[in-house]
Amino acid sequence: MNKIIWVVCALLLTACTGPQVYNGKEQFSSTGYSLTTTPRHTVDYFVEGLTNQLIESNQYLTASTPLAVTSFVDLQDMGATNWLGNVVSENFMFQMQQRGFTVVDYKSTGVIKVTRNGDFSISRNWQELSAQQPVDYVLTGTMLRQSGGVLVNARIIGMRSHVVIATAQGFLPAERIGRDLDFMNKIQIRNGVIIRTEQQQPTTNNIVLRP
């Protein structure tokens, strides 16, 4: 009888256990891992919380309104972002689409480029993107580096009216990010040219996307 009770308790505990939380630092333990409960990074939960704030404060955005998500930028340099700013924006695209909103991926080229290195349909090359995009609102924000982590402010802005219709704020502890917070891999725009500080080489010209 005791053995049966122990088995039942173990099954209940397994059923109640959600996806494993991973911060990207320590080596990931595959113990208990299954395809039905894939691990989630702590940044996922952080952005999920910010998304809930945006939804609660939202005034005009509807499920059918085209929305674009851009990289979150350094508050002290609005023309620069880094790996964290891009990761946060990618997570917001996931969260908003999962909630039924119409998310426009303006980096989509509209074609599939088949190469020896792989098959590609998205790009950051301005020459491969359309300057006209069906976007009414943009989800963007800023990051401020602090000693213990990063203060993140998010907002949804009307592309034509420039009115802020939703806001969110949160603090992401450094120990939960999983990578060095120093703005390594920093991406900047100088004189219309995208520059990555780790390469110190210009890539392609930037493009202004209009709704």
Mind explaining what this structure looks like?
With 211 residues, the protein is of the alpha/beta class. The protein has a single domain, classed as Rossmann fold (3-Layer(aba) Sandwich). The chain is 22% helix and 33% strand. It is built from three helices and 14 strands. The protein has helices spanning 2-16, 42-57, 83-98, and strands at 21-22, 40-41, 67-69, 73-74, 80-81, 103-104, 108-115, 118-122, 137-146, 149-158, 164-173, 187-190, 193-196, 201-205. The strands form four sheets. Strands 3, 4, 6, 9, 10 and 11 form a six-stranded mixed β-sheet that branches. A four-stranded antiparallel β-sheet has the order 5-12-13-14. Strands 1-2 form a two-stranded parallel ribbon. Helix 2 packs across helix 3. The chain is globular. Residues 4-16 and 198-204 have low confidence and may be disordered.
Quick overview:
The chain is α/β, with parallel strands linked by helices and 211 residues long.
Q: Give start-end ranges of low-pLDDT stretches.
A: 4-16, 198-204
The overall pLDDT average reads 77
Write down the CATH class: Alpha Beta
CATH architecture: 3-Layer(aba) Sandwich
Q: DSSP helix count? A: 3
Looking at the structure, the CATH topology is Rossmann fold
Query: What is the helix/strand order?
Result: HEEHEEEHEEEEEEEEE
Major sheet? 6 strands, mixed
Shape: globular
Q: State the total count of DSSP E strands.
A: 14
Q: Proportion of β residues?
A: 25-35%
Quote the distance from N terminus to C terminus: 68 Å
